[in-house]
Amino acid sequence: MFRLGYACISVNTKNNPNKKTTVAQLNKLEPQARLKKLRQILQTNFFNLMDLLAYNVENHIFVYRLPSEFVPLATHPVAENWDWAKEFAWDFQKAGEFIRSHGIRMTAHPGHFSILNSDKPSVVQTAITDFSYHARVFDLLGLDDNSVLVTHVGGGVEDKAAALDRFAAHFELLPDSVKKRLVVENDDTSFTMVEALELCERLGIPMVLDIHHHHCLNHGENWVDYLPRIIQTWGERTPKMHMSSPKSEKDFRAHADNIHPEEFVKFISSLAPYNVDIILECKNKDDALLTLRRELKKRGIDSEAFASQA
């Protein structure tokens, strides 16, 4: 069985929890006005999150990726005097209760600028700060370690062995709140499925298989042969994977608006023995998910778990 989810933004609802501001805008304001602006944005994001989660539950969508900007500028010095966790403790509690009671799996994908394997200490520290912010949000929501933070290995493709060693070394610098949630995804330009898998096995952390990325970057490996090892990295947790379709043969790495049904059927046929959560990374977001469901129904495929895992 599998469950489907989408990333961050619903195209079928007007309220999304990704409202934000800029440092330039805040710097035009006096300190108290800055705090007021930040509070207003986070309050709006909480309102929109609850609205969106209700929509997801109504449509039997129990896997969702929270936007990284949920707490506006949480890691920036411009907000360093704002104790958002304390001020919004009630909101985190109530949102967490809704999420847990409906068995929703929340995940996050910290930004591409959070590069843990960098050889620059300042960049590594920025990554640790960013990861810690995401982990704190999930901790405040009271979520278990199925709410993972997805990252890529990072840079250093000119010396992959050294780049992987740096990731492993810097992983040890992470606080436990991050270590228990961090998972690694293979990417489409630098580190293959096998390289990401071996790193995860080395560190004892889960690997997220992105099947589109694997088709973009591989050395001829059949991903199905590695599936048992990938699943094993998750231990007692529910494995999570990513699925997208290429925009075109010419622009193969780019994501299409929707999922190609035939590709998806081929993908899930190899996942039949497992319970897996799949985030669909499409331009049409939740609409692509609902469209795919209709296409699967036409084909007589009913292996999606429409009930939550509460």
TrEMBL record:
The keyword Cytoplasm does not apply. Pfam families: UvdE. It comes from the Bacteria. InterPro entries: UvdE (IPR004601), Xyl_isomerase-like_sf (IPR036237). NCBIfam families: uvde. The keyword Nuclease applies. This is UV DNA damage repair endonuclease UvsE. The lineage of its organism: Bacteria, Bacillati, Bacillota, Bacilli, Bacillales. Keywords: DNA damage, DNA excision, DNA repair, Endonuclease, Hydrolase, Nuclease. Gene3D superfamilies: Divalent-metal-dependent TIM barrel enzymes. GO terms for molecular function: endonuclease activity.
